Amino acid sequence: MVIMPGRSHKGALPPLSSEQSRLRDRLRQDVYLLGREIGERNTRHYRSLGLAAQHVSTRFLELGLPVREEPYRIEGKEMVNIEAELKGTTRAAEIVVIGAHYDSAPGSPGANDNASGVAAMLELARLFKDAEPTRTVRFIAFVNEEPPYFLTETMGSRVYARRARGRGDKIVAMLSLETIGYYSDRPKSQQYPAPLNLFYPDSGNFIGFVGDLSSRDLVRRAIGTFRKTTRFPSEGVAAPGAIPGIGWSDHWSFWQAGYPAIMITDTALFRYPHYHAPSDTPEKLDYERMARVVLGIGRVVEDLINK
User: Fold this and answer.
1) Which of 75, 154, 209, 278 has a CA positioned 20 to 30 A from the CA of residue 90?
2) What pLDDT does residue 215 have?
């Protein structure tokens, strides 16, 4: 459950490179657009939900990626998952999904949850837009991850994963980017559900790799690559999905369809004091550490799509 390959980085972080600095600024721009200019975005704020979807589609198109929208309806309103795909070369039938939900919880502008994940997903699409991967990679923005759709049949990722299984899509890995922008070096800034509190550090300065027992190989491969290539604190767990928090994002939907999937997260409510609150605003996030994390995730994606 808790023993992972490699070692978490400890000590001071190196200065930001010029590439990381540019990435930091782009991440901040996307989070401010979603979390401040657009703000709360869900079925109660349907126009804003549409503006967020349009922003994601526009970003994909600006990168030269083809966009496919997958709509479905709830209470007479059209909901849409947004996909950009890079076809693989020698193993094109095998698919790696990089996903993040673009809606926000009721009453919250959702800067960390989950504009941070969407911004990271868009930057990963930028990183790989000219690649020729061995496997096919799909970048997907999911709608309706938040309540009242959370862990239901109408959750956007649940609709997508169910349809993918119906099409016979061979998804070999799914990474859910969920709430990745908040870090703290303070002791006791990190909480855990029992019994995980017995095994992990009490400072919330790391990025977490989380999966259920059926996805433990993917958890271990992902965090192993991250630790090997990236100087940033990291922790991993493969645990029963019944433990609170283990399945709390879009990766859960892919488990239901029989696909291996993990969440990459700052642990959300177990660390972030503004979780699902009106105060989840863009200035709360640490864009320098986000940039380091996103480039590290990029190396994980590169490993998954080329081997």
Assistant:
1) 209
2) 97
